[in-house]
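Morning - calcium ion inputs below, output right after.
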Amino acid sequence: MTHALFAVAAALVGLMAIPEFATERADADESEYSACFAELAPIVNDQEQSDVVQKDCFDDPLEAEAFAQNLHSLDSVYVLFTIWEHSNFGGSSYEWYSTSSCNGDYGYNDFNVIGWNDKAGSARSACGRTVNLWEHTYQMGASLLINGYHSSLGVMNDESSSWDTAN
Ligand SMILES: [Ca+2]
Ligand SMILES: [Ca+2]
C-alpha cells in the first residue's frame, strides 16, 4: 500500500468512527425523550380526578410533532394544559386535552403515575383556563397559577406533582 492510499484508508476509518459515536449518542437521547397526549373527561360528581379517555405517547420527536399537528387541527380537540421537562418548553412534554369543550373541571392527581413527579420546568394553560400547578400529589402544598405560557416555573421548577383547573 502506498503512503497516499494508507492516508486515505486511515481518514475513512476516522470518518466512520465519528458518525457511529454520534449515532449512539442520538439513540441514547432519543430513548429518554417522550411526548404524551392524554384526553381527559370532565370531572363529574364525586370523582377525585378526570378519567383518562385515551393516551398516545411517542419517543420520536418527529412522530410527536406530526401527531400534535393532526390533533390540534381537529375542531373537536381543546388543549387544556401542557408541561415540559425543561424551561422554555424544551425536552419531553405531556399534554392534556378535552374533546367536549373548554368548560368543566379537570385535574390530574399524581405525576408519579406518568413518570413526571418533580420534573416539569415550563407549562402552558390553554382554552382560556387558569390551572393550579401543585407542589405535592392530590393538590397539596404550595401551588402556582398557570395562565397561558410560563417559560419557567420559578420555585415550582422540578417540584410539581399534580394539577387542577382553578377557574
Ligand atoms: Ca425539569
Ligand atoms: Ca413535588
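Note: The two ends are 77 Å apart (CA to CA).

O.
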